[in-house]
Amino acid sequence: MPTTPQPPEPVTPHAPRALPRPLLTQQWLDLAFVHWAVAPDAVAGLLPEGTVPDVLDGVTYVGLVAFRMHRVGWLHSPGVPYLGTFPETNVRLYSVDAHGRRGVVFRSMDAARLVPVLMGRAAFRLPYTWSRMDVRAEDDVITYTSSRRWPGPRGAHSRIVLRRGAPIGEPTGLEHFLTARWGMHNAFFGRTGYLPNDHPGWPLHRARLLACEENLLEAAGVAAPQGEPVSVLYSPGVPVRLGRPARPAGIPTP
What we know:
Layout: E1 24-38, H1 40-43, E2 51-53, E3 60-74, E4 86-97, E5 102-111, H2 114-124, E6 128-138, E7 141-150, E8 157-167, H3 173-179, E9 183-188, E10 191-198, E11 205-214, H4 216-219, E12 231-242
Parallel strand pairs: 5-6
Antiparallel strand pairs: 1-3, 1-12, 2-4, 3-4, 4-5, 6-7, 7-8, 8-11, 9-10, 10-12, 11-12
């Protein structure tokens, strides 16, 4: 790691680094972004070594993000229609490392397909869990449900219902901060690494939260925030490419 931490990179609507040889391709569709403000000290201990909470105006955030994963593919293979297509709901925090790379940290990742769950846990050490899940749309109302099966805690669940609103022409600074994240930090085999991604700029809609019943945050070790979410957004989705994990020094792993 560098001896002098670098300042955080600017928040940009497009990826700061191109990925000429993606490790994975996929689509993220019908996304609900629900966020609460939290004090950085409240979540600092939940981040991997070498990262700290990423803050905006002295505040960081916890996100509950539900969506449909679509056609995950390895390298240049076509996306898999069944095993690579499933609902997913994530609890995530916001991080920055000593290189100034902004990212997210996943505290839990509920998914409806067992094989991708096992692969994500084994290959990337990600906190995937197997859950019964559903995403349904009726006109402008989208409902996301999740009930955990394995490895637990059993009974961890969520139900998010939102009404999609008008498209956003120019996102606010907070909306960029919460969505324009070009990588994730995770402990890969005992050392913190960075997995970059790139995709087109988010098409975003503001949304109205009609219902949010969940205990996924508590199950992920995050104290339940007080009050209403500070941001609720919807996106029809984007195609995504994920690069190879990078070590803390920024050197790609073999």
